[in-house]
Amino acid sequence: MHPDFQPAAVELVPGLPEILPLDEALLPGIRARILNKTKPPGSLGYLEDLAEQIALLQGSPELLQLRAPIMLVFAADHGIARNAVSIAPQAVTRQMVLNFLSGGAAINCLCQSSAMRFRVVDAGILEPVRVNSEYLRVQRIAPGTEDFSRAPAMSADQCRAALMAGVRIANDEIDAGAGVLGFGEMGIGNTSSASALLALVAGLPVDDVVGRGTGITDQQYRLKLDLITQGVQRVRGASMDPVSAMTALTEVGGFEVAQITGAMLGAAARNRVILVDGFIVSVAALLAVCINPQARSRMVFAHRSAERAHVMVLELMQARALLDLDLRLGEGTGAALALPLLRAACIFYNEMATFDSAGVTGVEV
Ligand SMILES: Cc1cc2ncn([C@H]3O[C@H](COP(=O)(O)O)[C@@H](O)[C@H]3O)c2cc1C
Ligand SMILES: O=C(O)c1cccnc1
Fold first, then answer.
1. Which atom of ligand 2 lies nearest, measured to the CA of 190?
2. Given this model, what pLDDT does residue 133 score?
3. For residue 122, how far is the Cα from the chain centroid?
4. Which residue, of 95, 184, 216, 218, has the fewest CB within 10 Å?
């Protein structure tokens, strides 16, 4: 513990986009459209809420569109991983990036299964991959973060640069036509970072927010707890506000997490659907909401991960996860799996017959 440590001074990032509140005046029209479908009211359950949310964020009670969904997998390395808090060494981050680029990872298979386009973002892995690929975007902040148990993970400048790099890729993908942005991550050690971030902004005890990540031993788990505690102890009085979120990112964050946070803010500002994956991506989403609460209304939470603290993040976000499949992989796998449910919500909203059009009469709605 460093009792005299002052957190790095962070100021809000000039250039983060404005996010407007959604137009709630559209709700009656959206709800009427759903109510007139040939079914008992509410009987499509959460699919109805999903359709309502998508219509509201797209700003029209008319037809919904999920244009050109893309999965963005942000990869970066974490200094904390030098302490063996994962089942894998740091080098695996880069090896998995190469695996993504050759199409061999779980996320490649699940994107294929959900007809989702895919891109890998090098946000700061240790050693760059020297591959020419249309699927790779390089926006490296540095070759990995510092070990946050000993020193701030990144500088305030790096934190700002990462957020803005996230905004840029979101804008580029949206300019290229994306209506849905799925978010995934790859970074050995990043459950340590995500747990530390959650402990800080939510003011939760470290013991409650640390899980087993890739599946570590009891001994590794105790070490992980100690190291996260050391990092978190440097910061006092963090809460769910923009400055605390940025301080937390600077102290214990990761370049992929910060870029995801920025990209979500960018996607929210342009009213695109943000499809949130598991624990780590949900923590990035929480930080985005700390920075700008308006981002929340554009987020869909794909699944509930088996990583212990994910449920706490979902509760903080008042979110219901679409799937609960005991996944604990990350990469965006849960988000890719959930995309067909979003498509289903849009198709029923757009195409299902109404009582009038189908001549179904006498049903009380
Ligand atoms: C082969 C392999 C593939 C992965 N794909 C995602 N992760 C997941 O595990 C890591 C987080 O867990 P921890 O904090 O315990 O390191 C992240 O890279 C995450 O994406 C993987 C991990 C491994 C080993
Ligand atoms: O839920 C996640 O995102 C997760 C859980 C364990 C390891 N990697 C990712």
1. 8
2. 97
3. 16
4. 218
